[in-house]
Large ribosomal subunit protein bL21
Amino acid sequence: MVYAIVRAGGRQEKVSVGDLVTLDRVPAEAGSTIELPAVMLVDGDKVTTAADDLAKVTVTAEVLENVRGKKVVIHKFKNKTGYHKRQGHRSELTRVKVTSIA
């Protein structure tokens, strides 16, 4: 089984060929391909973590769509003072499909 740990949007994701992964927004249009930098590669029993070997590894993914995440509601409240503040947030996300690890 071949899989890789890639760096995407400040986080690390475990991916293999054919996986659908949701990342932080990537500046790419739907249908285009992107390359993700590999941090670790596992090919059967062989584990690669050396930086010079990983420079040769390319993980390519196809951008499926740009979406927005689930709404998060932030509500701050202080008792007996009449203070409350409501705020909402939705993350900008990109859904990709990993096409190859080479």
Remarks:
- The chain has a mean pLDDT of 94.
- The longest strand covers residues 59-68.
